[in-house]
Amino acid sequence: MTTKTDLDSIVDSAREAFAQAATPAELENAKAQYTGKAGRITELMKGMAALSVDEKKTRGAAINSAKQAIEAALNERRQALADAELEIQLKAEALDVTLPGRVREPGGLHPVSITIERIEQIFASMGFDVTDGPEIESDWHSFTSLNNPPNHPARSMQDTFYVDINGDDGIPYNLRPHTSPMQVRYAHAHIKKFAQRVKAGETLPEIRVIVPGRTYRVDSDATHSPMFHQCEGLWLGENVSFKDLKVIFTDFCRKFFESDDLTLRFRPSFFPFTEPSAEIDIQFASGPLAGKWLEVAGSGQVHPQVVRNMGLDPERFIGFAFGMGADRLAMLRYGVNDLRLFFEGDVRFLRQFR
Length: 354
Known about the structure:
- The structure is a single chain.
- By secondary structure, the protein is of the alpha+beta class.
- It has two domains: 89 residues; 243 residues, 2-Layer Sandwich (BirA Bifunctional Protein, domain 2), CATH 3.30.930.
- It has twelve helices and ten strands.
- A seven-stranded mixed beta sheet has the order 1-5-6-10-9-8-7. Strands 2-4-3 form a three-stranded antiparallel beta sheet.
- Helix 1 runs parallel beside helix 4.
- The protein is elongated.
């Protein structure tokens, strides 16, 4: 028969095993050795069946007492491990209340957004409307309506991204390579808006609009990005000339850069949607870019076919269009030499413009 001393030995052994358990998992393993299905206390309980009634009472009471002592030691060790874990967590998450508080920095506009707002304000002061359009465009609006039909070699200059949706012509839609599609879209809306006045014999008001927005091309280096920002401009009427383009754009550049100390050069070029066409270069007389000719825009007199696609008579309506990169203007204004810095999201860089 197991004596009380034997039970005391089991309790002492359990307490020692529990004390050596360094983790909750080890503690549960130790518990199984004593009160589990095959534990030492459980085995003692199974052996009571062969005892007499009086022996069962005496032995059962002793075993229960030992079991309660083991469970008390088990719970004590569980609590000790939990307290130790909490202490470690509190030390790891301790707050030094003497440190200054963390201040959330005020936000600010992105330098390209600042540049676009500046462009809009300047042209609005010259009487230009500001509009936008879809970034996913039909092939007709992106190219064909702008005198750039399928298989035209000039399309390679504006290689773009296409989506898995076909237009009515069976050609996939594209991520617009420029904001120029809004020339035709805006003209159609303009004609519709003033249709009743034209029917009444009045002259169609001039079309004067700029279109800033995101554009996309398969291009990426220090001065190009697959996604970039462009601002298209259009002035169309019955008495608009190339001279007006030169005056408007010169005035814009001087206001944008806040300097009259610069010169513009209109260099002959080619664009399918204008004829004649010109690249616009600027030259600063002072500063870090002094003496260098820098390309800032493409321009030209709107091609007669583009005017026809607008629904207007090219013998009556004439005008000019221009397109400039807002990112390029931001680079020149802020002295940034790598376009990719604008789109990397580095707060250290962007904080400068806040």
